[in-house]
Structures are given as C-alpha cells and as structure tokens.
Design a protein that fits this description.
- The protein is an alpha/beta fold.
- Helix content is 41%, strand content 17%.
- It has helices spanning 5-14, 33-43, 92-105, 119-132, 140-148, 172-184, 190-200; strands at residues 51-57, 66-73, 79-86, 110-116, 157-161.
- The protein has a 5-stranded mixed β-sheet with strand order 1-2-3-4-5, with helices on both faces.
- Helix 3 links the parallel strand 3 (79-86) and strand 4.
- The N and C termini lie far apart (77 Å).
Length: 202
C-alpha cells in the first residue's frame, strides 16, 4: 500500500518541509479519438495482403514508448514500415527530436509520418522538412500508391490525410429539394422527397 498525497503533505509539514512533485516522460501519450480516426483512414487504404498492428513497442527493455502502427509484408522480400501519427503538432523541432530518438532505438525499417491535414501541422512540417528530407524523402502520393497495391514504398515518407472524410457535393436534385423546403421553412420527408426528386429529374 502506497501513501497518498494528503499523508505525504502532512508528513512533510511535521518536518518543516514543502512537498514538491514533478512529472517525467515515461512513454508516449494516450491516443485520442482524432488520432485513432487518422490511423483508421490509413489502414482502410492498405492492400489486404499487408499486415497492420497498432501500439508496437520499441525493442528496448522497460521502454514504454511505442510506434503508433506497423505495416509488414513478406513478399517479394520481408519489409517493415513504422507509422507515427500526429493530429496536432505546433512544434516541428520537438517532433524531429522525438522521431530521431525512436529511430536511434529502433532503426529497422522505413518510417511513415502520418499527419492530419491542418494549417498548424503544415506550418510545423515546413520548419523540419529540410531536416527530414533525407529520412522521409517520399510524398503522400508515392507512399500510398505503394501501400494501396501491397508494395514496399522502399523509403520513408510523409503522408498528410484528412482526419475525417469530407462530405461530398450535393447532387442537383438534392439542391433543389433543400432550397424548396428551406424556403418554405420545412424539412423534406417521405413522399415529399420522392415528389421533388421526380420533378427535379425532368
């Protein structure tokens, strides 16, 4: 049983001491919903023959860090790509340092930096593209073209994806429906939708 903070505070007060606590990084932060959605958008684009795993620990004893995902295949020869996903990153230099330390401790395979498409992330990437150019030379189109067909990208790269799919454009018939019912202050339901589609298609 470990003493709680109240006990420690009282104990220190008796001795005339102030209790001070400090947090140290001991692993990667827990993923949020946006990061999981970003990883899923990459996973569904992979060829079925590729193997996908998440939370892949670094091969260092007692090290709590992990790659966000890993892609593997055995044909025509075994290859491996590690995926690091970023949904929010305003400090490109800190990201570059973190990636460098992970690669130092787990150097085998390619690295794919998966980034959510936001202005903040693009600004952060702009500050480190020159430093990462040798490590991550491929762009999103090249990386995803290889993974979509089940091939080894050959090198690392940066992939920028929307965290969520954007809604597609409305068809003309749907636009006419919406305009008519908004003008009337109503919402189209049931037979009214069929009626408007029928007339819009003439």
């Amino acid at each position: 049983m470990y003493p709680d903070l109240e006990f420690l505070g009282a104990y220190c007060a008796v001795l005339g001491l102030d209790l001070s606590l400090k947090a140290f990084p001991a692993g990667d932060p827990i993923r949020d919903r946006a990061q999981l959605a970003l990883l899923e958008r990459m996973r569904v684009r992979l060829h079925p023959t590729l193997r996908w795993r998440t939370e892949v620990a670094l091969p260092v004893e007692r090290d709590l860090r992990a790659w966000d995902a890993e892609i593997r295949a055995d044909r025509p020869r075994p290859w491996r790509a590690r995926v690091e996903a970023e949904t929010r990153n305003a400090d490109g230099q800190a990201l570059e340092r973190r990636l460098g330390l992970k690669l130092r401790d787990d150097p085998n395979g390619h690295l794919i930096l998966l980034v959510s498409d936001t202005r903040t992330n693009r600004r952060a990437l702009a500050t480190i593209r020159s430093g990462l150019g040798e490590l991550l030379p491929l762009g999103a189109r090249e990386v995803m073209a290889a993974l979509n067909t089940g091939h080894d990208p050959g090198r690392g790269g940066i992939v920028i994806l929307q965290a969520r799919a954007r809604a597609g454009p409305l068809r003309p018939a749907r636009l006419i429906e919406r305009w008519a019912f908004l003008r009337a202050g109503q919402r189209p339901v049931g037979r009214q939708v069929t009626h408007f589609r029928r007339h819009a298609g003439r």
